[in-house]
């Protein structure tokens, strides 16, 4: 028991303050979608991979599976729609077979969109797998958001384990009644009933939590006392103030042409 507590304290000591994580997440997303160059999302994806590998709270295998499941189908769709059937007329054709043609312009759009989506998914996966409702609530309250807004955002993460456990319970209940839940065809047939039950139970759970916190004075509370102990310091406070400023400067420099980063067209055309 003592070793477990010490291990959790060591993990908490090596992690950033949740407010710092939120600021870094927001600034990274702004850079990904604000700078029109594939270099930025590639750098963000690489940074998130390193963060998932070294973070004591994130399972690298779970992160990789989640990112792969969400991003690989997107890559296929974008490659077919944009890469092979780009509707432009003045294009540079790399390969053509019948109505399908691989163009530099279509491939560049597909690569840029996919890299941005992958960066978004990678960042969200690292943050979602490494955060819990208490950490998110503390981070949002540190950033001076109202208690009600912080509670709503934190509840979204807090309900994920609840949905997972309720889904497993519903499937086990169907299996005990003779349903072959290992079959995907059976699961698809059961999906409407499962979704309806989950939606109802989640609404009831949210309402009960809201009533309890309202009775305890959540709406009137203005204190910023943390629910957990977090590592913070002057360096992190400077990072929380400087990262948004630096992000805005980089985006403005990119818009006016002072940031010499290659576009997807230039990278693919040069290759």
How would you sum up this structure, described in words?
It is a multi-pass membrane protein. InterPro entries: ABC/ECF_trnsptr_transmembrane, ECF_transporter_component. It is found in: Membrane. This is Energy-coupling factor transporter transmembrane component T. It comes from Brevibacterium picturae. The protein is mainly α. It has 2 domains: 16-144, no CATH class; 146-216. It has 10 helices and 2 strands; from the N terminus they run H-H-H-H-E-E-H-H-H-H-H-H. A two-stranded antiparallel sheet has the order 1-2. The chain is flat and about 60 Å long. The termini are far apart. Mean pLDDT is 78; it is low at 1-13.
Short description:
This protein has about 270 residues and is mainly alpha-helical. Helices cover about 75% and strands about 5% of the residues. It has two domains: about 15-145, no CATH class; about 145-215.
Shape: flat
Order of helices and strands: HHHHEEHHHHHH
- Average per-residue pLDDT, rounded, comes to 78
Strand order in space, largest sheet: 1-2
Low-confidence stretches: 1-13
Total count of helical runs of at least 4 residues: 10
Q: Roughly how many Å apart are the termini?
A: 57 Å
Q: Which range best describes the helical content: under 10%, 10-25%, 25-40%, 40-55%, 55-70% or over 70%?
A: over 70%
Q: Count the domains.
A: 2
- Percent strand equals under 5%
Class inferred from helices and paired strands: mainly alpha
For the biggest sheet, the summary is:
2 strands, antiparallel
Rg calc: 23 Å
Give me the count of strands.
2
Keywords: Cell membrane, Membrane, Transmembrane, Transmembrane helix
Subcellular location: Membrane
Protein name: Energy-coupling factor transporter transmembrane component T
InterPro entries: ABC/ECF_trnsptr_transmembrane (IPR003339), ECF_transporter_component (IPR051611)
């Amino acid at each position: 028991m003592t070793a477990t507590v010490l291990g959790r304290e060591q993990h908490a000591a090596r992690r950033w303050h949740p407010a710092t994580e939120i600021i870094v997440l927001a600034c990274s997303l702004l850079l990904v979608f604000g700078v029109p160059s594939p270099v930025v999302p590639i750098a963000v994806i690489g940074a998130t991979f390193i963060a998932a590998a070294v973070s004591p709270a994130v399972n690298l295998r779970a992160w990789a599976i989640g990112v792969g499941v969400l991003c690989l189908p997107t890559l296929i769709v974008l490659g077919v729609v944009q890469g092979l059937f780009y509707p432009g007329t003045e294009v540079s054709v790399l390969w053509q077979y019948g109505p399908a043609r691989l163009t530099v312009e279509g491939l560049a759009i597909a690569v840029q969109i996919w890299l941005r989506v992958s960066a978004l998914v990678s960042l969200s996966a690292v943050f979602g797998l490494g955060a819990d409702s208490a950490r998110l609530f503390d981070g949002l309250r540190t950033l001076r958001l109202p208690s009600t807004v912080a509670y709503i955002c934190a509840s979204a993460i807090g309900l994920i384990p609840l949905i997972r456990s309720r889904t497993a319970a519903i499937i086990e209940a169907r299996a005990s009644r003779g349903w072959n839940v290992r079959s995907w065809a059976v699961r698809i047939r059961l999906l409407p009933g499962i979704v309806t039950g989950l939606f109802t139970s989640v609404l009831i759970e949210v309402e009960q939590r809201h009533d309890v916190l309202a009775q305890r004075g959540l709406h009137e509370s203005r204190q910023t006392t943390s629910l957990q102990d977090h590592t913070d310091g002057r360096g992190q406070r400077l990072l929380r103030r400087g990262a948004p400023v630096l992000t805005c400067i980089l985006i403005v420099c990119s818009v006016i042409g002072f940031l010499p980063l290659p576009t997807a067209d230039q990278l693919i055309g040069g290759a």
